[in-house]
Amino acid sequence: MFADLSPIAIPGALLGVAVLVGVTYWRLRAAEIKAETALQPTAAAPTEPASSEGDTASHTHAEYSTEDTAAAIEHAYRIAFSAGRIDYHITGQHAEVLAEVRANVASSIHEKDYFPRRPMMLPRLLQAINDTEHTRHHLVSLILEDPTVAGAVLQRANSAFYRVSPTPVERLDRAVAMLGAAGLRALLATAILQPVFRVPKGYFEAFADITWEHARRSAQAAEACARADRNSDPFVAQLLGLLGSLAAIVLFRLTMDKYREQPNLLPRAEVFITVLQQHRAELASMIARSWELSDMSVLAAEEQVRKLPPQQMSLLGQSMYYGELCGALAVLNARGDYVAEVAVRLLVDQGLDRDTATEAWRGAAAESML
To answer: Which CATH number does the domain housing residue 328 bear?
Structure first.
């Protein structure tokens, strides 16, 4: 796809740039399991897989949110905020903070401290990757404009998946050739957005890392769903899989600022979790519109706000929905709080065919190469 290659050396210092770091009561009931299992954050997850009966049937009446999906997502939030239990009785000054956040959600996308503007490199790089008339030299020049992206490309080319020789890949043109169009497309969204998933140190310091983990797991699962239906763009699905977690970071920053206006008030995890439960999908939809994503992408994000049953969503909307749910389940699984068989069964119960559910789970549970 590339022509007119001229070698371009990359300073050795670039190799170190942008190494991406994967910055109460719990009740889990599998649909076919008769007994209920109570889970605390450190409790052992159920080991009995649900019955496979009906796995090939389409669950056309699955609701957007069920007791099981809501419990899984809430438990992922509790991990992010290190909250052993949740008390949603929010009163007094905490209720005032919650009201202030609600009043400022829409305006938050205009605050440069909360919200990253549309990453301008993204459409330019995508055009260069997809256009066969662009030379590799031109593509490398674009990548060099952002050291974070350049470092991520080199890091991925040096991963065990791509590098077949003991000699490190130190030239960006060689790294681009090794990754190819598919590898670069899979890399771009996360490489550009990952630095945003950072918050100042203070309260709830685990939140940014857990949210980034959820983001990349969701993106990988959404991409797998899009590849399975063969009618959706996997890269677009991956980008949409990141938007919910990006919205969560913006909402976290907004809520923390509202607490800072109350200097004698200690932040409560329940307030943050309530904000995320109520406004995450709404803000993700606003981000999609503000970035001027395609009509289909905006529709997919809006379907989450409307809480449509997944089988009534567009294909991209389904990829976004199942990606985020699968990402939350994989966060729990990584900590021993959910087993793979039950996670796949829950995805099936929510309307995903078993083969696609299995592929989505593999994507979400895999360690990222980024």
So the answer is: 1.10.3210
Q: How confident is the model over 137-160, as pLDDT tens digits?
A: 888 888 888 777 888 889 888 888
pTM: 0.74
Kindly state whether residue 30 falls inside one of the protein's structural domains: no
Amino acid at 215: A
| Number of domains making up the chain | 2
Spell out the residues 6+ positions from residue 238 whose beta carbon is closer than 8 angstroms to its own: 186, 189, 190, 219, 220, 222, 223, 226
Bridge partners, residue 37, by sequence: 28
> In which region does residue 208 sit, left (phi positive, over 0), alpha (psi from -120 to 50) or beta (all else)?
alpha
C-alpha 153/C-alpha 361 separation (Å) is 25
**Could you tell me the two tokens for 273?**
């979790």
**170, 244, 311, 316, 354 from 231: Cα distances, Å:** 37, 22, 15, 9, 18
Q: Which residues of 306-332 are buried (b: 16+ CB within 10 A; e: fewer)?
A: eebbbeebbbbbbbbbbbbbbbbbbbb
| CA angle centred on 355, ends 354 and 358, rounded to 5° | 85
- Same domain for 135 and 255? no
Q: DSSP labels for 171-185?
A: BHHHHHHHHHHHHHH
Is residue 208 domain-shared with residue 233, that is, in the same domain?
Answer: yes
